[in-house]
Design a protein that fits this description.
peptidase activity; Band_7; alpha+beta; single chain; 4 domains; 21% strand; Protease; 307 residues
């Protein structure tokens, strides 16, 4: 009798402890009775009927991610290789949603297979309508198309597509090389155009600078010529003024004005000798030459005095 009593107490303790279930945060427990859905358990400590209620599954309501790698063919028969990241989660914590998540698929691997194939099929269908040159520029359009196509399907499974990122889009090696050559040629063309513009600007500015330099030099030369002319005119005016004053003084002293001419003649010979710097100057320095020169100068002076 004592053994039977111990056995009953042990059995009751086991049943009592098995009646309490702990559900982790971010998880919902699905309870079935004889294989049929009964209720769901929220995170924390819960009670279930021993030997009758069974925890069928524990469903995570947290976000989950999966990486995809697949191939598609464009309208112009180019192979496109995609690498994508899929982020999804349970739609909500409603009873019908939890039932769909728990019982739509046999296990998680079947769900993942269906989810991946559905997304790949949607992307392939869209890429098949596009040309190879347009695929790279339509990354956002592809994502929007996939979300629009599979959102309703995922809702019927109890899931929601949070995000789809196309991390890498590549083509066959030959296409990638040709695209690289096209980009390189465009860059060379742009570089040549920029160099041509820079050269044109440089030459234009150089020509403008040369023209301005010529203008400045011409203006300076014109101003210098004017100053030289003014200096020569002033010199001649001073010479004439001095000669006039000297002639007046000679007349007041009753002296012959030809003495001035003689003095100018000798001063000219002296100036030629001092500043010739090795140059040969032919000058008739004889008395006859001087008399001839004096007569010519006197004749010119007499002509100026005649009315």
């Amino acid at each position: 009798m004592a053994y039977v009593l111990y056995f009953l107490v042990f059995f009751v303790v086991i049943i009592l402890f098995s009646s309490f279930v702990t559900v982790k945060q971010g998880t919902i427990g699905v309870v079935t009775v004889f294989g049929k859905y009964r209720r769901q358990l929220r995170p924390g400590l819960s009670f279930k009927i021993p030997l009758i209620e069974v925890i069928h599954s524990r469903i995570s309501i947290q976000n989950r991610s999966v990486e995809l790698s697949f191939q598609a063919v464009t309208q112009d028969q180019a192979n496109v290789y995609f690498k994508a990241m899929l982020l999804y989660s349970v739609l909500d914590q409603g009873e019908e949603t939890i039932k769909n998540v728990a019982f739509k698929f046999v296990d998680a691997s079947n769900l993942m297979q269906a989810l991946i194939r559905t997304i790949e099929g949607s992307i392939r269908a869209y890429v098949a309508t596009q040309k190879q040159a347009n695929v790279l520029a339509q990354r956002n359009e592809i994502v929007e198309h996939v979300k629009e196509q599979i959102d309703k399907v995922l809702e019927s499974w109890g899931y929601h597509l949070q995000d789809l990122q196309l991390n890498d889009i590549t083509f066959d090696d030959e296409i990638m090389r040709s695209m690289s050559r096209v980009v390189a040629s465009h860059n060379l063309k742009a570089a040549a155009e920029n160099e041509g513009q820079a050269l044109l600007i440089t030459k234009t500015k150089g020509a403008e600078a040369d023209g301005n330099a010529i203008k400045i030099a011409a203006a300076a030369e014109r101003e210098a010529a004017q100053l030289r002319g003014q200096g020569i005119a002033l010199f001649r005016a001073e010479v004439a003024h001095g000669m006039t004053k000297a002639a007046q003084e000679m007349e007041q002293a009753n002296l012959d004005i030809s003495v001035i001419l003689f003095t100018m003649w000798t001063e000219s010979i002296k100036q030629f000798a001092e500043n010739s710097e090795g140059n040969v100057i032919f000058l008739d320095g004889s008395t006859e030459g001087m008399n001839k020169t004096m007569k010519e100068m006197m004749a010119m002076q007499m002509q100026r005095k005649d009315p």
